[in-house]
Amino acid sequence: MSRFNLAIIGGGLVGASLALALQAGARARGWKILxxxxxxxxxxxxxxxxxxxSALSFGTRQIYERLGLWQGISRRAEPIRQIQVSDRGRFxxxxxxxxxxxxxxxxxxxxxxxLGQCLWQxxxxxxxxxxxxxxxxAMQPLGDGYRLSLNxxxxxxxxxxxxxxxxxxxxxxxxGIHVNQRPYHQSAxxxxxxxxxxxxxxxxxxxxxxxxxALLPLPENRCALVWTRAxxxxxxxxxxxxxxxxxxxxxxxxxRLGALRQVGARHxxxxxxxxxxEQVRPHLVVLGNAAHSLHPIAGQGFNLSLRDxxxxxxxxxxxxxxxxxxxxxxxxxxRQRLDQxxxxxxxxxxxxxxxxxxxxxxxxxxxxxLGLDLLPPAKRWFARQAMGLxxxxxxxxxx
Length: 399
Fold this sequence. Notes:
This protein is α+β, with helices and mostly antiparallel strands. Helix content is 36%, strand content 31%.
């Protein structure tokens, strides 16, 4: 029976980031970390027009700089130099600018495959072991940890199990960890777009009566589209031919980037706010989308998870020699409670405020966008939320 100090179930962006955040301290303590992942990482990065991407906040850049990873990630990270926020058919609008905020970029857009490649290449095989492709089929709590049963009929024991297997975690359900779920009755249509003009590092948040959309800058003058619509309407858009789709998108987005020229593969994701009612138990942590899954339009989900990762790693490395004691895990949960509550609340309120056509609400949000331009302190607060710094007391005043 193999035994590890930590077993991270899910070797995606969150799980791999945790292994990297722990790696140096684990080496010093003699800890052994196991990453269990059903999908094997590729041997090399393969550029793709249709690659899925993530928006990384400026605060996330600071975390990866601390881990010594940013230089590699930045090779294919497209800076967001401006964010334009507008409300279709109304005069309210605001613009956030990196120069005004005193930062090189408000955030960055990185292809997930490239980010994953950078994370996996940074792992030290003497500290972090892989079981891949492999899945955990059952988790049995022990007095001093967990016993994990894998789909190859082997078992592994660990002092601390970290559940980072995504928002639809079957293991979370198996353990009896209930979730609070608030459906948005919308789906996100995700695709890459080629505009007719250079995006110049501009990101666009466009709110309409039918739902919000975001267009984020990518390398090679592509843009990542996140278009939120009601479920049936989203499916209709996904099934349109390319020209009809671009025409409809153009009608909603306008000509801020000229005529839209190309759209790649389109994918649909039903949207809901999901929060686990328990994030820690003795010898167990729930992390990433398994802990909280947010609406993508505000771009906060992965960035919040990475702040959780940093806080958890710091707490574990400052704690007992054997990870998993409940006092250390509860302390981590309390440290992150305010950050999670504020970020989830910010994301949810933005989604609801800008996702309704009710006249009074629409008028109020229109005046709110105007107010951001007229009131610099309010605009700076909004910018710091977008940059992932508003809930980080340790970074206040450093951007």
